Amino acid sequence: MNSTILEVHELRKTYGAFTALSGVNFSVRSGEIISVLGPSGCGKSTLLQLIAGLQQPDSGEIRLRGAVVSSAARLVPPEKRSINMVFQDYALWPHMTVYDNIAYGLHRRKAPAPERERKIKELVSLLHLEGLEQRLPPQLSGGQQQRVAIARALATEPDLLLLDEPLSNLDMRLRIEMRTEMGYLFRRLGTTVFHVTHDPDEAFALADRMVVMRAGRIDQLDVPQACYSMPATRSVASLLGAGNRLQGQWVGTSAQPAVRIQDEVIECLMPAGTVPSTEQVDLLFRPEDVHWIDSAHEEVAAAASLSGQTVNGKHGERSVPANLLPVRIVHCAFEGSKWRLLASTPDGQKLAFMHPISLEPGTSGCVAISSKSAYVYPHEDER
């Protein structure tokens, strides 16, 4: 059984009248990668700074390997926490070579020369920095600088590695490459990682578990697959890609959730604790979980509410998908491998979906919404 490295208990931090963190609780096991995800201002950066020892909480406590390192009455300084941090801008010493940057922490700890040489050689190999040892940081690419920052942080074998938006300064291609390499490296080394990001794809690629935050609190803490497939709140759903939101009327039960949107009933999922208390509800779903049904044949439009029944048409008998909603295309944009289409429902609500070909604005048809990827939440006015 893995031992617990980090424990956060009822953590609270305010700045004047603003509450940055309110009653945050979680723990991190040895070798586990935790990704903290949330919108700007949700408290994730404050949480990282408190764990690092750069700020002190108003109440609650932080424990490392069972010992209290932060509370309202106690603050162990960062250099005594066996925690290393990779900053968003890497924070490399510009006047030091790659070799000396990696060796910095080992020198400060007065590690014997043979140990330093062994560790630096190992990290240079693991992070593909061969041949760059005598270069200065300004002579490196962004991806190379990021590798040096990680190597420096790993050199002293900390109990916990903190990552603060580590890929935000890289271009898209490098971000994809680096998040894959980092996930492989940390798992190979058994490094315990606490990772803060605003990018869901980065969190999915790295995390064993995800902490999804909103307004200083944790909305959901679970494995990435669970957060994606059953978002606990509408905020989590929106953050993890459920950008479509349709307002409707609750017509289902907890056993058979369903929402009526104008004249059509859409079957859906109801995350635990989200039983609608009002008639008006919001249905959230992702563009990739919507499929276009051409209504050039009259029988499709006529059978749109039959939910899976069979109809006869010009091309013989065929099945009509469930959860059909009539729409009209209003805009089409090319996004590389697919087109993103914006459509309007009969009552004027908008939804987006992906399609392999373009469709002319004004084209009428139906979309099929996956009942296993649509989530119902109590209605909230958009702000």
Beta-strand content bin = 25-35%
**What kind of sheet is the major sheet?**
6 strands, mixed
Determine the CATH superfamily of the largest domain: P-loop containing nucleotide triphosphate hydrolases
State the total count of DSSP E strands.
Answer: 22
Radius of gyration: 26 Å
CATH class of the largest domain: Alpha Beta
How many domains in all?
2
Strand order of the main beta sheet, please? 6-7-8-3-9-10
Low-confidence stretches: 296-320
Structural class: alpha+beta
Distance between the termini: 46 Å
The helix fraction, in percent, is 10-25%
Plain-language structure description:
The protein is of the alpha+beta class. It has helices at residues 44-52, 98-108, 113-126, 142-155, 172-189, 200-206, 224-229, 234-239, 298-302; strands at residues 4-15, 18-29, 33-37, 59-64, 67-71, 83-86, 160-164, 193-197, 209-214, 217-222, 244-250, 258-261, 264-267, 280-285, 290-294, 310-313, 316-319, 324-334, 339-344, 350-355, 364-369, 374-378. A hairpin with a 2-residue loop joins strand 1 (4-15) and strand 2 (18-29). The protein is globular. Residues 296-320 have low confidence and may be disordered.
